[in-house]
Amino acid sequence: MKYENLIIIDHPLIKHKLTYVRDKNTPKKEFKELVDEIAMLMAYEITKDFPLEEIEIETPICKTKSWVVSGKKVVLVPILRAGLGMVDGVLKLIPSARVGHVGIYRDPKTVKPVTYYFKIPSDCEDRDFILIDPMLATGGSAVEAARILKENGVKNIKFMCLIAAPEGVEAFSKAHPDIKIYTAALDERLNEKKYIVPGLGDAGDRLFGTK
Ligand code: PRP
Ligand code: URA
């Protein structure tokens, strides 16, 4: 199925690294490093449309004009906990980005999102926001996080994840047709426990070594 606001970032290095992220035998340390690296590679693509302005600088040879990214600082908003695992990777490419947080977990029984924390910079108008979570499963958590951002005055949002399920893409696109979803992979489906198949398991547990 074709989703208008879905961008699958198709790159051999991302595909390669994602294979080892999916592999259940990949140790925690390597898992985190790979997630970071994929996030960094994805950030390169996600920031492709950032506006530029010309400034004057002086090289050791002469004065010249050169390009810098214009506008206010970007805000990264990881959905706690697992979203934290991708922040450092994105910060490697956008070190000046601010970092907000939204704390949401999926109730294991109802699989509905439960929000417990929210903090973003106060002057959020005109800033570009990147909402971050490795997993888009039912879509409940990401839909709610984007809703809260909008409720707090945020206008420009992109959502990035590692793996999306068709069900999550459908739900997110319906709730937020104005937000582009960037993913490294679109998987087959959800299982009866609403985990992504084939997926990578529980992203938070694998990142933080919990169970
Ligand atoms: C995971 C994941 C997403 C959510 C996706 O978080 O990181 O936030 O589930 O599922 P959904 O699309 O069906 O809402 P989890 O609830 O396990 O919390 P954690 O990151 O604190 O482990
Ligand atoms: N949350 C995860 O961490 N993994 C899934 O497959 C679904 C939700």
From TrEMBL:
Stretches that traverse the bilayer: none
Gene Ontology cellular component terms for the protein in this record: cytoplasm
Gene: upp
GO MF, one annotated term: magnesium ion binding
Source species: Deferribacter desulfuricans (strain DSM 14783 / JCM 11476 / NBRC 101012 / SSM1)
Binding site for 5-phospho-alpha-D-ribose 1-diphosphate: R81, R106, D133, P134, M135, L136, A137, T138, G139, G140, S141, D202
EC number(s) on file: 2.4.2.9
Domain of life: Bacteria
Activity regulation note: Allosterically activated by GTP.
Gene Ontology BP terms: UMP salvage; uracil salvage
Domain Phosphoribosyltransferase positions: 9-210
Protein name: Uracil phosphoribosyltransferase
SUPFAM superfamilies referenced in this protein's UniProt entry, alphabetically: PRTase-like
Residues given in the record as uracil binding sites: I196, G201, D202, A203
